[in-house]
Amino acid sequence: MMSEKKESGRGLAFLPLLVFVFVYLATGVILTAKGVDKAFYQLPSPVAVIIGIVAAFFIVKGTVDEKFDMLVKGCGDSNIVIMCLIYLLAGAFTTVSREIGGVDAVVDMGMAVLSPKYASAGLFVISAFIATATGTSVGTVVAMTPIGVGIAQAGGLNVILAVGAVIGGCMFGDNLSIISDTTIAATRTQRVRMKDKFNVNAAIAIPAAIVTIVLLVIYGSPETVVPAGEYSYDFVKVLPYIFVLVSALGGMNVFVVLTGGILFSGAIGLWNHTFSMLGYSQAIYGGFTGMMDIFLLSMLMGGLARMVERGGGIDWILGKVSQVIGNRKTAELGIAGMVSLTNIATANNTVSILINGELSKKLSLKYGVDPRRTASLLDIFSCVFQGLLPYGAQILIAASLMGSGTNPLSLISSCWYQYMLAIFAIISIFVPYADGYIRRHPLEADPD
């Protein structure tokens, strides 16, 4: 490999990142105007990144060999490789656990203990638990929205409010789950441990969830209380999720956690004859292939970010941002604002974190923002807007499952948790009530 030459701050070098965002955004807007369903998800994000990389080859200075050197080093950065391996293992765990009936068991367990009197609040809590356990907000929306609609119609609830509670719970889990795409991206880009990010994040997310639950209890009670349905579940199938959650919070190495979860779920599947050894291996591989989109996106984004950084683009934008940032609080507001705007543009919270990860890390170092807090802010504000976008996957899917004629815009006002999360996160910037964990625990390098 040839040695790299880093340029000083150069605005043109930042353009390839803007090309990626513009292509992604413009495609979604054009397809939306044409009436295409889920328009913002039609262009595969790795293809959009390739367009940005091609632009970088024309813009960044150096020979073709030097540019390939930058690209390959970025794609092969140790943190990028670790991130991609975690994605693969998380996908395998999710798929194997789903194959043994784990998701259905978690849903039925939640519904078995749900009091119809507190149906809206219960839907939020159950959705939050499922999304935290499985690491997928979209999967939870698919599983819980029909249940929420059915309970609301049977119990005299406001259907829009019930589905809004479901979406809110899903975004709670998406934000906090240690196996969600957003958590993996936020912790790896900031080089922090998942356990630490969880604890910092929870100090903001849990109060927001409590306020949401109280509001749902007060304003979401049914007009008539109907008896709960009969739900049976196999608690054994829930155990792999509990193992992964508890062991991760206990500080266990994330590779050990996810591998253990895959083995745990596989043992249950083999024991109850859900699949054979061959079927088990196919489920694992199916989980791998299901993560190919985010795998390729992360790898290629690493390469694009390296080219932009070595071309001076990151230093240039850092200099521009620094002109309006003067201290830690404004740096945190800047990080929150950047990831929020990017998410609005791309309708993808993981993409938003990856785009802003390196710049946020530099801002944190310059203005003394703890990287655990930076990871938390990136994840929080990307999830806030992802759960409010009428063209985002979560609201689009929920609206489609509610039946034809449901306008996605009608759901936005009922997604109370996302508003509460944003409010508590902004308060935490000006009144650092959530920094107790940071003060008590000195920063440690991520052992992974």
TrEMBL record:
InterPro entries: Na/H_Antiport_NhaC-like_C, NhaC_Na-H+_Antiporter. GO terms for cellular component: plasma membrane. Residues 21-220, 244-433 form the Na+/H+ antiporter NhaC-like C-terminal domain. Pfam families: Na_H_antiporter. It comes from the Bacteria. Belongs to the NhaC Na(+)/H(+) (TC 2.A.35) antiporter family. This is Na+/H+ antiporter NhaC. It comes from Dethiosulfovibrio peptidovorans DSM 11002. The lineage of its organism: Bacteria, Thermotogati, Synergistota, Synergistia, Synergistales.
